[in-house]
Automatic annotation (TrEMBL):
GO terms for cellular component: cytosol. Gene3D superfamilies: 3.30.420.40. It comes from Kosakonia oryzae. Keywords: ATP-binding, Kinase, Nucleotide-binding, Transferase. It comes from the Bacteria. This is ATP:glycerol 3-phosphotransferase. One of its GO terms (biological process) is glycerol catabolic process. Belongs to the FGGY kinase family. Pfam families: FGGY_C, FGGY_N. Signal peptide: none annotated. SUPFAM superfamilies: Actin-like ATPase domain.
């Protein structure tokens, strides 16, 4: 590798966008590109995406960023990806079995319910750290095999690959030479033995997943392979990091500092905090691998919420605000909730495909509770934004059950965090500082940091001067006390949403 190669390009393949950024030797973003992605909902509760379009968009943004900085300056690639989304493909051709089943998809709810009825949840939680829910990849992989003729037999013969999106992208970026995933993505499948850090035979048998169909598990920071056979992208660029997007954001916030809880506000939300040791003793939350930095495994405690930004998007469409230009819409989402003193008793429970942590009720359905004649659009928009803060607060309360948990600050990132009103409400509700990173590409930066660690052969702590700065929202403790009544009323509304099952 020539000495002038200093650029790291990080791909963040998310649910609604594929983004790529280029970072120079100082960690500054010098180029970026994004492309939107489509989501299909062919039936109630079914959410899927085209794996081929995910790949095409990812290649396009990486190619454009490489063109912007010059291929001769690129030292390495890194990938962060939407998690739990499962895809299968034929090893010989690289063609997918069908659509990628999104992390939001609840088509396996009946199977998950059957596992609970059989009394298997405690065993699964002990081994994998994850509660039984259609969110996780294993039941989706099982569904893909069941839905494809002769697929399970082919998988046993090693002719079908099953993976999360990181392994799908790596396979194609390397021309089929590398079939791997990292520890963070593996820990979201419900097939990883959390203590041993390897695929678990009992879980493979339970979900009917042949071991030969699964990727090799590697540290999040390290060599995964080299680019090969890609139009417009030179051969031989090393891929030095892969990590789930929420884990990457936690790494980029503070390298896993104790007491710093991370909340990513996106289509859904991940609330995660580093903990030690690995243990699954909080029933309503997931214990997961936060990352493997090439030297050690770091564990995390996490709550997954399927509908946060998605809840606001639904309300925006339902109230006609979606007709506004993007800049005007962003302004409206900041001014409308502040234009009214309250929601007039309205609570929006966005269980559009069920509830995630800490409720784990895929049969729950969304509701708008407390409507009265005086309720206007501003009240509904405010209720949608408040629903984000309540859901995140519910997860933080559940986290307090863990003996290693402390809360010094909530570190936040993602598109909705640009809303200052929302951030202040979150700080007041929790009664703790909310520290916002205004870097939109935080997950990509986390992946890039792990790639730079592998490139330079340095310790994680030596990456600290690359970390982005934060803007702090201090809580109003008098308002914090008043908001507890609203939070209690929200929880009553959640119970009403659950009673519809």
């Amino acid at each position: 590798m020539s000495l002038n190669k200093e650029i790291i390009i990080a791909l963040d393949e998310g649910t609604t966008n594929a983004k790529a950024i280029a970072l120079d030797a100082r960690g500054a973003v010098v180029a970026k590109c994004a492309r939107p992605l489509n989501i299909q909902t062919p039936r109630e509760g079914w959410v899927e995406q085209s794996g081929e379009l995910l790949l095409a968009a990812s290649l396009a943004v990486v190619r454009q960023v490489i063109d912007a900085v010059g291929a001769h300056n690129v030292a390495a690639l890194a990938i962060s990806n939407q998690r739990e989304t499962a895809i299968g493909w034929y090893r010989a051709s690289g063609q997918p079995l069908g659509p990628a089943l999104s992390w939001q998809c609840s088509r396996t709810a009946d199977f998950c319910h059957a596992l609970r009825e059989q009394g298997r949840e405690a065993e699964i939680k002990t081994v994998t750290g994850l509660p039984v829910a259609p969110l996780f990849s294993a039941s989706k992989m099982r569904w893909l095999l069941d839905a494809t003729p002769n697929a399970r037999a082919l998988a046993k013969q090693g002719e079908i690959c099953l993976g999360t999106i990181d392994s799908w992208l790596l396979w194609h970026f390397t021309g089929g030479a590398a079939f791997c995933c990292d520890y963070s993505n593996a820990s979201r499948t419900q097939l990883l033995n959390l203590q041993r850090g390897e695929w678990d035979d009992d879980m493979l048998e339970l979900f009917g997943i042949p071991r030969r169909a699964l990727p090799e598990i590697r540290p999040s920071s390290g060599l995964f392979g080299h680019t090969q056979g890609l139009a417009g992208i030179p051969d031989g660029i090393p891929l030095l990091a892969m990590i789930g997007d929420s884990h990457a954001a936690l790494f980029a916030h503070g390298l896993g500092a104790a007491g710093c809880v991370k909340a990513t506000y996106g289509t859904g939300s991940s609330v995660m905090v580093p903990v030690a040791p690995a243990q699954g003793d909080v029933k309503s939350l997931a214990t997961t691998v936060a990352w493997h930095d090439g030297e050690k495994l770091v564990y995390g405690l996490e709550g997954n919420i399927p509908h946060t930004g998605d809840a606001v998007a639904w309300m925006v469409e339902s109230t006609g605000l979606s007709e506004l230009p993007e800049a005007e819409l962003a302004q409206a989402l900041s001014t409308l909730p502040a234009s009214v003193d309250s929601t007039l008793g309205v609570y929006f429970v966005p269980a559009l495909t069920g509830l995630g942590a800490p409720w784990w009720d895929e049969q729950a359905r969304g509701l708008i509770h407390g409507l009265s004649r005086g309720v206007k659009r501003a009240h509904l928009i405010r209720a949608a934004l408040e629903s984000i803060t309540y859901q995140i607060a519910d997860v933080v309360v559940a986290m307090r059950q863990h003996g290693d948990f402390t809360l010094k600050a909530l570190m936040v990132d993602g598109g909705p965090t640009k809303n200052d009103w929302l951030m202040q409400y979150q700080a007041d509700l929790l009664g703790c500082p909310v520290m916002r990173s205004d870097v939109a590409e935080l997950s990509a930066i986390g992946a890039a940091l792990l790639a730079r660690k592998a490139l330079l052969h340095i310790d994680s702590e030596q990456l600290r001067h690359y970390l982005p700065e934060h803007i702090t929202f201090q809580p109003d403790m008098a308002r914090h006390g008043r908001l507890q009544k609203r939070w209690f009323a929200w929880q009553n509304a959640v119970q009403l949403a659950r009673s519809t099952k």
